[in-house]
Request: fold
Amino acid sequence: MPSNEILTALQTQLKQKDKYLHGIVEMQTVLLSTESEALGALNPALAPLGLACGADRVYIFENDKVDDVWTGTVSQKAEWCAPGIEPQIDSPDLQGLNLRDVFPEWFAILDTGNKVVLVESSFDELEQEVLGPQGIKSLLLLPLMLDGVLTGLIGFDNCKEEYDWTESEVSLLQSAASQISLNLAQRRAKRSLEQLNTTLEDRITHRTIELAEKNNSLSEALSTIQRAQADLMQAEKLSGLGRMVAGVAHELRNPANYVGNNVKLLAEYLMRLKSGLSELIDDQDPDNAEVLSWLNQEFDGAHTLISHSTKGVDRIKETVNALVNFSRLDETEVKVFNLEEVITDTIRILQPKWALCPSVEISGLQTYSLTGHPLKISQIIMNLLDNAYYAASEKNGEAQAKVSLDIQSDQEQVIIEVTDNGGGIPSDVVNKVFDPFITTKPIGTGTGMGLAISWSAADEHGGKLKIAKTDSNGSTFRLSLPVANEA
Reply:
């Protein structure tokens, strides 16, 4: 083939790919900006994809999930149609469609992560019966996979002629399918979190009413009841929070790994593509200089985006690992653990909340082995650091707030001191800070349970939590914990 024809073919392919990529980017932008869960809310996100690939109808089916099990029954969630093409999303037949039974061959292919491609001339009797009334001449179905499980599908119909989808087009559309799959997974995770939050709020409201009724008749035993309630609320709070965090970490880890792997593969694909194009284009021909310059510029930009994406994925993985360590509620037995890891993970989780505050100043951090429940020790340190940051920023502003954490040890115990540059603890509260429901924070910003829970957890581990000093220049809380022994 003459070089001019090769260049023309390459330019045509590049224009087609550029058109697809712009459509995918616009689709992703609409997906991210759409919060509604109503049927058809994602329709606008399919428009740029349909226009880019020239399909007459684009639609999404999501696999139904019952008790965390994917059923194989799909329901249409979104659809875009070109002008003059009849929409199908309002059809009740497309809600709760048992794809496994109706089209077992389709389901078997999609369930293995492969595409289904059909043209009218090869429709069997059932396909003609179902697809014919919709005016479908050719059909492309791509699976929406998550962790190797079929969670739905995206379809592309051509209603004007039989169309032969190229491998390049299918590859680009598969990339769009991956993004849609991740977006649907995020929406499912968000719905689960909202349901969990509603359940937790109902439980907390119910428990608060119970306590109010009991306090009216048991005022003389208030201190004892509050102490028992603090322990109960601690267990429920840690359990509920741990399950929620574990669920979020799980939902984030898989997409992060998936995106990370795809970014690496994309970098390799680009290198091979660049190498192949360089071999095809004669760099000694002056007529090719502009094309080569444009190609190099595009590849450099793509590699820059890949590098930034890799760093972002690594940051997500780092945060997810911290959340996983924080939420190990299955480790309820007493165990030997590393205090350094607990402190590091705790600070990493708190840091996003302190956007305007410098990092915590840490001294004496070493590998100390303790015996007990690492999650509860993390909760103590988190409460102390969070209170210190609040007191420091309340007096000095967030930018000037200072919080330090100092660790010392002897052969029998580890001493952890958390110091702030706040205004100190008021004299009328200093002797009651470890009592339940005592707080110096404004109404609505604190429950007064943090230090009470922390004191109980320290006592449970054979340690002590107390105020080492407090004055107008700040406060220091001291936590002492016994070191692990062979027994």
